């Protein structure tokens, strides 16, 4: 089963990263000859529900494959940015690690430690559809997704009602009006985890998707240059939105997911009305509050339409979570990845509320109405743009996030964001 939407991320990951894959050889796999093997597994499921899903998956796989032991090492999401590059420079990287695909993956394979698992995955990766190509570089599979993700607004229905908001906003003008109503009601309209920077980037990215044509988006990721005037327009639209002061006090120092005082925690505990985040947010929030009925209070709506842009107002920002294998035990690792994408595990992911399953046969296991809404909207979207900090090579994505964070902090300008990307991309891939 394949979605009818066209994924720009798939095009970019396969076409724009060919250069990064040139000259990469597939190292010898020490596990290919059989025998007991221990796989060190780095994942970002540090809290339930995903932590329990992964613990069970590792234990169940070992029972079915006694020669394969999975050593599970949960790692805080934000730590992957530094830990993975260092690990790939070492002599003992993890056997399996969290992988978001795109240009980030293209940067990592140049270490020579990331395994080409095309041969191992080709017999079974097909049902995952075009989405799995986001983990390809130069037509070779260097990772496999286990979840799809879409970014939208998660909101408290009870706080909207209390502020006199009867329906979620569908245009930027309506969102600005609702921000005023929520502020007048005495609640932070929107929470954002500015300390971690990547949540800030969601806003710039959506303004870019609304302002820029699909061709302009594709060209930018292929060339590493933001040359179309729409990129400056996106920054100016973001600036205008920031001027409405939609966020909680001290948002630049607020973490996204760590503790009750994080942006997710503020929404979970009723101190903020909404947050622009991925579909993993309900699972994240559930660990940050004692409110056992939180999910009943949550709703989801897509990023509003922005007047005057060349982008499709129904296009979505997203990506996915996946895993890559390193070269020491690639065959055993690929076998485990096949298990993680199998229907039983995928149904556990869906029913737990941890995210949107990548295996289409597991979609019926989703029980959360908001997650169902997010999946339905995404399946009808004209295209999905991969997060820019993942679509770009690592250094370019980092420069982009830094420049956007500066704009949120009142420094820089729409033009300096464009300049930061263009300068970072000058050296190529």
From TrEMBL:
InterPro entries: Bact_solute-bd_prot1, SBP, TAT_signal
Gene3D superfamilies named among the record's database cross-references: Periplasmic binding protein-like II
Keyword Ribonucleoprotein: no
Keywords of the record: Signal
Stretch forming the signal peptide: 1-20
Name of this protein: Carbohydrate ABC transporter substrate-binding protein (CUT1 family)
Organism from which the protein derives: Labedaea rhizosphaerae
Taxonomic lineage of the native organism: Bacteria, Bacillati, Actinomycetota, Actinomycetes, Pseudonocardiales
């Amino acid at each position: 089963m394949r979605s009818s939407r066209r994924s720009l991320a798939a095009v970019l990951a396969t076409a724009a990263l060919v250069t990064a894959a040139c000259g990469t050889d597939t190292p010898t796999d020490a596990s290919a000859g059989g025998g007991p093997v221990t796989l060190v597994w780095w994942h970002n499921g540090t809290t339930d529900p995903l932590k329990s899903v992964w613990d069970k998956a590792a234990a169940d796989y070992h029972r079915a494959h006694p020669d394969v032991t999975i050593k599970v090492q949960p790692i805080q999401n934000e730590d992957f940015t530094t830990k993975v590059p260092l690990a790939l420079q070492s002599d003992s990287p993890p056997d399996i690690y969290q992988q978001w695909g795109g240009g980030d993956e293209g940067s990592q394979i140049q270490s020579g430690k990331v395994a080409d698992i095309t041969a191992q995955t080709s017999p079974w990766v097909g049902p995952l559809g075009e989405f799995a190509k986001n983990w390809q570089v130069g037509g070779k599979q260097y990772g496999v997704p286990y979840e799809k993700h879409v970014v939208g607004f998660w909101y408290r229905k009870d706080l909207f009602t209390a502020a006199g908001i009867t329906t979620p906003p569908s245009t930027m003008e309506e969102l600005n009006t609702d921000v005023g109503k929520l502020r007048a009601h005495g609640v932070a309209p929107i929470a954002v985890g500015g300390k971690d920077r990547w949540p800030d980037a969601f806003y710039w990215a959506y303004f870019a998707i609304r302002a820029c044509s699909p061709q302009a988006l594709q060209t930018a990721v292929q060339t590493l240059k933001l040359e179309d005037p729409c990129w400056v327009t996106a920054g100016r639209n973001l600036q205008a939105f920031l001027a409405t002061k939609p966020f909680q006090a001290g948002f630049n120092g607020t973490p996204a997911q760590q503790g009750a005082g994080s942006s997710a925690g503020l929404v979970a505990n009723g101190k903020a009305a909404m947050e622009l985040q991925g579909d993993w947010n309900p699972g994240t929030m559930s660990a940050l509050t004692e409110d056992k009925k939180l999910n009943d209070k949550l709703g989801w709506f897509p990023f509003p339409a922005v007047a005057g842009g060349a982008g499709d107002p129904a296009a979505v920002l997203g990506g996915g979570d996946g895993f890559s294998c390193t070269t020491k035990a690639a065959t055993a690792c690929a076998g485990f990845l096949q298990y993680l994408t199998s229907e039983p595990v995928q149904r556990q992911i869906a029913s737990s509320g941890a995210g949107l399953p990548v295996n289409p046969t597991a979609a019926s296991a989703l029980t959360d109405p908001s997650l169902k809404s997010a999946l339905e909207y995404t399946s009808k979207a004209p295209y999905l743009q991969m997060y820019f900090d993942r679509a770009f090579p690592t250094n370019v994505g980092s420069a982009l996030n830094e420049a956007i964070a500066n704009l949120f902090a009142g420094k820089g300008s729409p033009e300096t964001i464009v300049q930061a990307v263009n300068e970072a991309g000058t050296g190529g891939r």
